[in-house]
Write a structure and sequence with these properties.
The chain is mainly alpha-helical. It is 66% helix and 0% strand. The protein contains 8 helices and no strands. The protein has helices spanning 2-11, 28-58, 73-87, 89-107, 110-119, 123-135, 150-161, 165-176. The relative contact order is 0.08.
Length: 185
């Protein structure tokens, strides 16, 4: 999207001012304002699509298994983490990279080496990894230069190239409406 905004001035130059007509080229501020409006509209559309398609599919059903007193707290927190990673992949990748860097700095200390040795065969770490993968955090990359997780982009491109794109989008729409079998039709 940013590249598209950068290409706008070259693709749609203002008409040249003709002598005697008094027409002026649009001011630089007008072009910046146009680009900002396009960006804001694309963000609004992204948020709308996210809220209408992805978020409802990940929310617990009314009166479902998560409705018990306190029983839905953990799944709700995990769903929220999952939605945050999907909605803000750049921020999630940056936070993950910062955590990895801090963890490596700590592991280089004597106390950190002790913790690493103690946790190496831990059942808690193994189970934590299962939760991490189930929530989709495994799409984040251990690369400090990564801006957007490549797994996120690969999923978008795979969906866009799919010959059954309409069926997949219909499945998302059905899931958003509460029809969990929508994608299986």
């Amino acid at each position: 999207m940013i590249d598209l905004l950068r290409m706008l001035p070259a693709l749609y130059p203002a008409p040249p001012a003709e002598a005697g007509e008094g027409r002026e080229r649009p001011a630089l501020f007008d072009l910046i304002r146009l680009q900002a409006m396009i960006y804001e509209e694309s963000r609004r559309l992204q948020d709308l699509l996210f809220e209408r398609l992805l978020a409802p599919a990940a929310r617990p059903a009314e009166g479902g298994d998560d409705a018990g007193a306190g029983a839905g707290v953990i799944p709700a927190i995990l769903r929220r983490a999952q939605l945050l990673v999907l909605k803000h992949p750049v921020a999630a990748q940056a936070a993950f990279a910062a955590l990895i860097a801090e963890g490596r700095r700590f592991a280089a200390t004597p106390e950190g080496a002790e913790w690493a040795a103690a946790l190496a065969g831990s059942d808690l770490v193994r189970r934590g990894r299962q939760v991490w993968d189930a929530v989709g955090m495994n799409m984040l990359e251990d690369d400090p230069d990564a801006i957007l997780p490549s797994a996120y982009l690969e999923a978008l491109l795979r969906a866009a190239r799919s010959p059954d794109l309409e069926a997949a989008l219909r499945g998302l729409y059905d899931a958003a409406k509460g029809d969990p079998l929508g994608a299986a039709r």
